[in-house]
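An instance noted here:
***
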Amino acid sequence: MIDPKALDDLARKVAEAVPPGLRVLQQDLEKNFRAAMQGAFARMELVTREEFDVQAQVLARTRSRLEALEARVAELESRVLGAAPAAQSDTPTQPD
């Protein structure tokens, strides 16, 4: 969710932009605008910067582990494929 302080600042700026004749309504406008923005942001399912950074770290660790596993699989495949031709030549053939 968005930072409540930033939301308050935005609501205050919008309320301050109200014409002088409507300043009496400023506090009410500020409260209603803040509630409307919170509802809109909640429906958008936004994430905080902290949540984003945590997920970016998880992704980086996962990518690193994937690369290590890919290298390990490639090494094991090369061992198996390298040993397979030698094993095939050692097996006796059936006479026809």
About this structure: Residues 73 and 79 are 10 Å apart (CA to CA). DSSP finds three helices and no strands in the chain. The first helix runs from residue 4 to 16. The two ends are 77 Å apart (CA to CA).
